[in-house]
Amino acid sequence: MLKNELFNNVMQDFNAGYWELLINPYGENWSDLFYETLGYIKNDKESNLDYFLEHLIHKDDKDVFRDNFLNYRKNSVNFKQHIKIRTNQDVYQLFRCATNDTLPVDIKSETKYVFFFEIKLEPDKTLKKDNFYYKETAQMTATGSWYVDFNKKQSYWDFETYRILEYPEDYIPSLKDSANYYAEDYQQLAAECFFNCAMAGTPFNTEIKMVTANKREFWAKAIGKPMYNDNKEIVGIRGVFQDINESKKKEEGLQKSVDIIAAQNSRLFNFAHIVSHNLRSHTSNLSLLVQLIEDIDDPKEKEELISEVKTISSNLNTTIEHLNEIVTIQTNNKQERLPVKFNEALQLVINGISHMIHQSQSQIRADFSELEEIRYIPAYLESILLNLITNAIKYKHENRFPIITIKSYKEKGNKFLKIMDNGRGIDMALFKDKIFGMYKTFHYNEDAVGIGLFITKNQVESLDGIITVESQVGKGTTFIIQF
């Protein structure tokens, strides 16, 4: 027995019998109080699981307790359970079982224990209450129970499982149909959980997307554990699942809000940087030139300085236009989305830059057969295509003509637009985190401004989309937009 002052004090307070789970030698050591509570003399009964299951526990509780106990011993899965145990008066007394981590205090023990707390109520009345509370709890928490019997090759559902999965009461569940209970993207996860539990005795506790008989998808928390026979062989799986769709939606909505706020903060930081750095640079230069003009008497020198003032003024105007365009994106994202055909949007862009395409001998190959249109702000889609196509032409590979491939498609319920080129490519090791930054350039072209990709990213994200980039130096670049 564990000689631990805290443990002994807890046992005195609880006044509960217990089993100590031994490793070497393998077995269970029953405490004196466990025998005493049942009215037995120590050593009158064998202190092992097999004897307990065969002679002492009520048959209605036997299977569940055996499964819980073996899962606790083999997999350290703690449990709480009500069971009925035969006393020396040949009547069944109700107990509440609990393991180390389910106690209200930490007993500071690495040894595993199962505690038995006597419940001073008439067992038959308690059973009726328990059954009532079970149904009430299942309904209020939207929790269904099920189990699969490998020997009988049958599956069983409780009343709440039928209700949640929207199947009629006369429906007979089957393992053959089990894939139909899960969303397509989660069928592999369900199969892996079930297989590992059935073959290796590994319990599972996961969140998974399920499907009802009426094809309604919902999020569920699924918990399962193996069932054992008297020979400690796995003979089935018992489990529960809870409909957590509402809480999951709130969680996803909260995460989406966090992501939006983070993205907005990032854009605000960029905006503040441009305002504080670039505008201050222009105004400082203007201020310096004005001072110089005032101090110089030579008309020719003044004329030269005034020319520089015009250049700085033009640059300042360009910067303000860029900033205004960014602000406009954020204020215009509430515009009504309209059906926009990809082919028509692309044709408008091609018409506008036909001279550039012809001069560079570019080829544009488009395939919109899988997804012909999307609800979007037309001006944004045209702007996105314009920026990515002109970039592909500007930064073409010096040894080949540009080939730009554009494809729209659907995947796992989402809509995408992919734009690929065979240009110079971008060194992702150097520029991965800067590609969509404002005034960031990567190829040192004299006409490179570094505003196009920044604006494109803002337009995509303002409508809750995602833009990603893949690139390899010397081979080309691919942009993927998820709408």
Structural key phrases:
single chain, 483 residues, alpha+beta, Beta-Lactamase, Helix Hairpins, 4 domains, 5-stranded antiparallel β-sheet, 17 strands, 24% strand, elongated, histidine kinase
Distance N to C terminus: 64 Å
In which order are the strands of the major sheet placed?
Answer: 2-1-5-4-3
Specify the number of helices. Answer: 14
The structural domain count equals: 4
Q: How many strands, which pairing sense, and closed or not: the largest β-sheet?
A: 5 strands, antiparallel
Q: Looking at CATH, which topology of the largest domain would you report?
A: Heat Shock Protein 90
Structural class: alpha+beta
The residue fraction in helices comes out at 40-55%
CATH class of the largest domain: Alpha Beta
* Radius of gyration over all CA atoms, rounded: 36 Å
- The whole-number mean of residue pLDDT values reads 81
| Strand content bin | 15-25%
Shape: elongated
What does this structure look like?
By secondary structure, the chain is an alpha+beta fold. It folds into 4 domains: 116 residues, PAS domain (Beta-Lactamase); 104 residues, PAS domain (Beta-Lactamase); 86 residues, Helix Hairpins (Orthogonal Bundle); 150 residues, 2-Layer Sandwich (Heat Shock Protein 90), CATH 3.30.565.10. It contains 14 helices and 17 strands. The strands form 4 sheets. It has a 5-stranded antiparallel sheet. It has a 5-stranded antiparallel sheet with strand order 7-6-10-9-8, with helices on both faces. A 5-stranded mixed sheet has the order 12-14-15-17-16. α10 crosses α12.
